[in-house]
Amino acid sequence: MHISLTIVLTTILILFIATYIVIYIVLTRRIYDREQYVVDIFLEKIAKIPAVIEVMRPYVVDEHLAFDLITRLHSEGIIHEYNSIPMLLEHNARINDQYAFLMRLSMAIPELQRDSYFIYIRDYVISYDRMMRKWLPAYNIVIKNWNQFIRIKNWSIIGYILPGRSKVEI
């Protein structure tokens, strides 16, 4: 029995494409799961910002100056649909800057530092920020694996035809 070269090449091509599809699906799902977890943590964190504002409101003299920007950033964060973690991190950095401003402001108000509800919410927001930062290395590992997969895929002419682009590492 003589196997023709066409059958062998077709089989190799089918195996290559099947392997690509399996790896593509697995890595895409891993990236989506990690991204979604980080987005969920971010949304839970910023969901507590109105509570921080409401607890601080009675103690602050000029609430428009203190709360306008963080309120706008909170609204943008809630309604925005994040399709990349770098975009989310940029928005998170802007929110963190304003949150740090509120924390510096709260340090100047001794009564607020004794308010147990404020302390609880402040620690809650900080813990979610830490949790989000803890998950970023896991996301970065999956992105590195994805980018390596894309580099290997692009070694062949067929690889350029198949979908998939490299992603930005954090």
Overall description:
By secondary structure, this protein is mostly helical. The chain has seven helices and no strands. The longest helix has 43 residues. The termini are far apart.
Question: Descriptors for this entry?
Answer:
170 residues, mainly alpha, de novo design (two linked rop proteins), 0% strand, rod-shaped
Topology:
Blueprint: H1 5-47, H2 49-56, H3 63-79, H4 85-107, H5 110-113, H6 116-153, H7 157-161
Helix pairs in contact: 1-4, 1-6, 2-6, 3-4
Q: Count of DSSP E strands?
A: 0
Structural class per helix/strand content?
mainly alpha
Helix content: over 70%
Order of helices and strands: HHHHHHH
- Architecture in CATH? Up-down Bundle
Brief summary of the model shown:
The protein has helices at residues 5-47, 49-56, 63-79, 85-107, 110-113, 116-153, 157-161.
